[in-house]
Amino acid sequence: MAKFLNTFIPLAFNKFGKNAATNNNLPLFVDGSCRREPDFQNPFPAITQLCRPGKLVPRLNIGDLVIYITRSGFYGLSYSHWKFIGILEVIEIANDHLAAVPFYQTKQIPISQNIFCHQTSPNPLNLTHGKCGFQHKDFTPQQIVSLWNKGYIGRAKDHPQIVITKVWNDSLNINNPPIITHVMMQNIFGRIPGTQNPPAISQNEWINFRNVMNI
Questions:
Q1: Does pTM top 0.85 for this prediction?
Q2: How far is the C-alpha of 167 from the C-alpha of 97, rounded, in Å?
Q3: Which residues have CB under 8 Å from 215's CB, separation 6+?
Q4: 130-164 pLDDT, tens digit each
Q5: Which residues contact 66 (CB under 8 A, 6 or more apart)?
């Protein structure tokens, strides 16, 4: 069972996203993109390749764990830190987005919102953090989301494999997640690990993580 460390940008990362959460009664620490990656509000979040294409999903096997922390930010405090959101366990592997749909249909639950199919659609801009590179005065919110989503469509076609997960050990916290300071990172990993190419963590690092985070 391999373990990986991954980061994402939550709604809480910026003012636009915090307003989205407040105005729409959303948890502050769900992913803030127009396609939630992953969709922490789904009981079985999919991990797709809309982000980090080719870097994580192809390395995952059933039973593997992915630790999710936020990107480093201030999150209302005077110093930068991370938030520990939770751990997802891989339970299914699908060759493409459509191949994952029957899993959700069989369970009669909504399909993970980052899966491209007829039953899902991108979030409107006012439900996101707005960090997409298309914030131009000549673009309407609808046009911004359309461009944002089209980029993801391309990635889904080029990198179609996805995994379906469940929350490991009731570890998910999208409302008031615990802090990870720089000192804690050093105590766990002996460094500040990069996550653009999500690293596999060693058994000792896993033990350190569980001890420091009390899980």
A1: yes
A2: 20
A3: 87, 169, 171, 209
A4: 998 776 668 899 999 999 999 999 999 999 999 99
A5: 3, 4, 5, 6, 47, 56, 60, 87, 88, 90, 165, 198
Q: What does residue 207 show for φ and ψ, rounded to 5 degrees?
A: -65, -45
Could you report the per-residue pLDDT of 58-72, keeping only the tens digit for each? 999 999 999 999 999
Give the number of residues written for the chain: 215
- Rounded distance, CA 180 to CA 81, Å? 6
Q: What are phi and psi of 134, to 5 degrees?
A: -115, 20
Helix, strand, or coil (residue 82): strand
* Structural domain of 16: 3-213
3-class secondary-structure state, position 46: strand
Domain count, the chain: 1
CA dist., res. 147 & res. 182, Å (int): 36
